[in-house]
Amino acid sequence: MMKMAAAGTFSEQISVVVDWFNTWNDCEKVVALYCLLRKLPPTQTKFLSQVLDQIVAACSPIDLEEQANDPGHQLFPLLL
Description:
80 residues; mainly alpha; 4 helices; extended
């Protein structure tokens, strides 16, 4: 994995992380986010929880159900 240079603005550093994120599969993305979320204090965790709830609420329940039941859309295929 590439190392992020300490130099650069926060915006540039975030851009590098987003570029990496966009190359990962769904499982890798979830694992990376989970690792980062565990490092947050409760206040920020609560904020992100509310944001995620709004995103899920905006999704079609049918789409969510179809993905959940689609064997080709396994989040953790190595665990099955």
